[in-house]
Amino acid sequence: MRLKIFLMGITMISLTVFSNVGAARIENLNSFTIEEALTYSMEDELLANAEYEKIIEKYGYIRPFINIVQAEKTHIKHLEPLLEKYGVEYPELPEGVVILPDTLTEAYELGIEAEIENIAMYEKFLEKELPKDVEEVFIILKNASKNHLRAFRRQLEK
Predict the structure, then answer these.
(1) pLDDT tens digits along 92-130
(2) Left, alpha or beta for 61 (phi > 0: left; psi -120 to 50: alpha)?
(3) Which of 13, 18, 59, 129 lies at 20 to 30 Å from 86 by C-alpha?
């Protein structure tokens, strides 16, 4: 599906929306298992990492992408032991899911949208009762995404 998104009154960009990956999977989700929450979380972190790496490849070692891509790798490392503990298969991203924006401005806008969706996903998961270790990691990841969101917004305002 194609969707046009207007962000911050600056530009219109066209993105492919994958409703079967990461945070996009929870939009209409009313209930979930711990396995689903961990799978969707890992997918979202893997997707962000892959997108930010592609942006760095295209536009160079620029902030905040160089810092945030390292943080995404840390997020993945936080989730890996939980996947193992709860017997969740390590997810793989579908072919063609990574979006490479045409401009650096669109890259910042993509980062903003991705972090907003990531925060909303963790907030939705945290509304439910979770095992303590999962809850703690989700809080850490949600707070990190709030920092990433601020960083992308600052760059876009420059």
Answers:
(1) 877 777 878 888 888 888 889 888 989 999 999 999 999
(2) beta
(3) 18
User: Which amino acid does the sequence have at 22?
Assistant: G
The string of pLDDT tens digits covering residues 143-158 is 999 998 998 898 888 7
Q: CA-CA distance, 124 to 108, in Å (whole number)?
A: 24
Nearest 5 degrees, angle CA 126-CA 151-CA 56? 105
- Token readout for 15 is 């993105």
Residue matched to tokens 């899911």: 97
SS3 of 7-44: the string is ECCCEEEEEECCCCCHHHHHCCCCCCCHHHHHHHHHHH
Q: How far apart are CA 106 and CA 114, in angstroms?
A: 12
Q: For residues 50 and 79, what is the distance between their CA atoms, to the nearest angstrom?
A: 16
Q: Is 122 exposed, middle or buried (0-12, 13-18, 19+ CB in 10 A)?
A: buried
Closest CA to 132 of 87, 91, 85: 85
Residue 59 token pair: 């536009």
| Spatial distance between the Cα atoms of 102 and 14, rounded to a whole number of angstroms | 10
CA 28, chain centre distance (Å): 17
